[in-house]
Amino acid sequence: MASQELNHVEMLHVQVVKIIQNYRDEHGAPPEAMMAVWNWEHDGMADKTARVKVLLDMHKR
Q1: Sign of dihedral through CA atoms 24, 29, 34, 37?
Q2: What does residue 19 show for φ and ψ, rounded to 5 degrees?
Q3: Sorting pLDDT into bands at 50, 70 and 90, what band is 59?
């Protein structure tokens, strides 16, 4: 189940990147507040995802 949830995280990540790119294409640079939230969430999600991947790898051994 954890591996499946990692796939969900990746799918959500791809969607948010698309939303931000669409905003850039239509309106230019996104608002600072929007990017601040994205950067904060992205950093936290990247750290947590990396830890889950390590735990899953340890479990496979």
Answers
A1: positive
A2: -60, -45
A3: confident
